[in-house]
Amino acid sequence: MDTTTSNTAVDATANRTANGTAANDAAANDATTARASAAGFGNALSYLLSGLPLGIAAFTCAVTGFALALGTLVIWIGLPILTGTLLLSGFFANLERRRVAVLGGPRHPQPPPPTRTPPRPTGVLGALNDPRPWLDLAHALLSFPLRVVSFCVALTWTVGGVGELLYVTWSWSLPRDEGETGLLDLMIDVSSRGADIAFHTAVGVVLLATALPVVRALTAAQTGLARALLRP
């Protein structure tokens, strides 16, 4: 009897220990997943926000260089200008390859060093005959509007969400006409301070709750264009 009771107690203790360990493991896994998700969101948001200044530089160089090359092509100065523009576009394309690789997606390494191949034109003609620089130039031009939209949406969605969530702390500073209580009053003629704060807070909750899929979708669009055009 005593032996049976002792064994039962030991089994119960072992079960409790196993359950506690499983619960701790599950909590640790959840915490790890949450940290990884937060880190991924931060990397994606940083990718989108830093893409605009890079896109402005790449687009400006591409448009200016290409237009100048076409305008001076008749006097042959346009050929070296066009070559320089393609090389500069390749520089920005390599930066974008590295940025895409940081996100952890399929990597597009630097173009491999040339191996033994049949002779081909070098110098200006070689650069113009190589399709890769033209794809780099196309990416500089086509990615710019996408980068502008992504920057505006990502910044508005995240910063706007935080601002709306904290609306109660700074709404007092907004200038208002006499008798006006806020946006809700202008929209549906509800002149209630509490309703106005509740409305803005709810908007902030919705924006922040949907920020992760929105940022992921914008990142997927940009990286998808990069992977399509900037292949090694």
Number of helices: 8
Give Rg in angstroms: 29 Å
Overall average pLDDT: 79
Work out the number of β strands. 0
Low-pLDDT regions: 25-32, 117-121
**Residues in helices, as a percent range:** over 70%
Distance between the termini: 76 Å
Biggest beta sheet attributes: none
Topology order in helix (H) and strand (E) letters: HHHHHHHH
Number of domains: 1
Strand content: under 5%
Structural class: mainly alpha
What is the 3D form?
A: elongated
What does this 3D model show about the protein?
The chain is an all-alpha fold and 232 residues long. It has eight helices and no strands. The protein has one domain (38-110, 121-229). It has helices spanning 2-71, 78-102, 123-129, 131-165, 167-170, 183-188, 193-209, 211-229. Helix 2 crosses helix 4 (131-165). The longest helix is centred in the N-terminal third of the chain and has 70 residues, at 2-71. The chain is elongated. The model is unreliable at 25-32 and 117-121 (pLDDT under 50).
Short description:
The protein is built from eight helices and no strands. It has 232 residues and is mainly alpha-helical. Helix 4 runs antiparallel to helix 8 (211-229).
Defining traits:
232 residues, mainly alpha, 0% strand, 8 helices
Write the SSE topology:
Layout lengths: L1 H70 L6 H25 L20 H7 L1 H35 L1 H4 L12 H6 L4 H17 L1 H19 L3
